[in-house]
Every structure is written in C-alpha cells, then in structure tokens.
Specification:
By secondary structure, the chain is an all-beta fold. Helix content is 0%, strand content 52%.
Length: 98
C-alpha cells in the first residue's frame, strides 16, 4: 500500500466526511453547537474518537463522557454511541475491524 494523505481542515464543514477509502474507516465529524448524532452502533468495530476542536458530550450506552479538544476515547463499537456538540466541534473518528 502506498502513502495516502488527507487534510481534516479541508473536509466538509458540517456532518461526516470519510477521509480515506477502505479500512480502517476514518471519518471527520463536524457538528454545530447542540447538534446531535442519533444513537447508533458499529458492530464488529473498535472506535477511536479524537476531539480536534470544541466540546462534545459523548453518550455511550447512556453514560455521558464530556470531551474537549485533545481528548481521545477508545471503545467497543457494540456500544450505542450518540455524540452531541456542546460548542461547535470537530472530531476524528477511526473505526477498525476487530
């Protein structure tokens, strides 16, 4: 595999943008203050959730984790996840198999 490059600052200003094709799935998430992603899961994945800017209240199976820029959380994708932006926020989300 060659070298692939992406720029999170060039990603869509709102919503979810895949940064690369294939595995692991790497997504740039941009949310406006008070915007929430509905609860969902990612079966058979491990998730790395890195807040790049702002503050996010990340609900995992009903347990809220208050995250701010620089915080990184790793968890099993079987859990129900629902991020809500406390302020305008951006995150890098990596979903790997296994």
């Amino acid at each position: 595999m060659g070298v692939e490059r992406a720029n999170v600052d060039a990603a869509e200003s709102e919503g979810r943008t895949a940064l690369f094709e294939g595995e692991p799935r790497t997504v740039h998430l941009s949310l406006s203050a008070e915007q929430r992603v509905p609860p969902h899961d990612h079966p058979e994945r491990r998730i790395l959730f890195h807040v790049l800017e702002g503050e996010i209240a990340l609900d995992l199976d009903g347990e809220t984790h208050d995250l701010s820029a620089g915080d990184v959380l790793r968890f099993d994708g079987e859990r129900q996840i629902s991020p809500e932006a406390v302020t305008d926020a951006r995150a890098l989300v990596v979903l790997s198999k296994g």
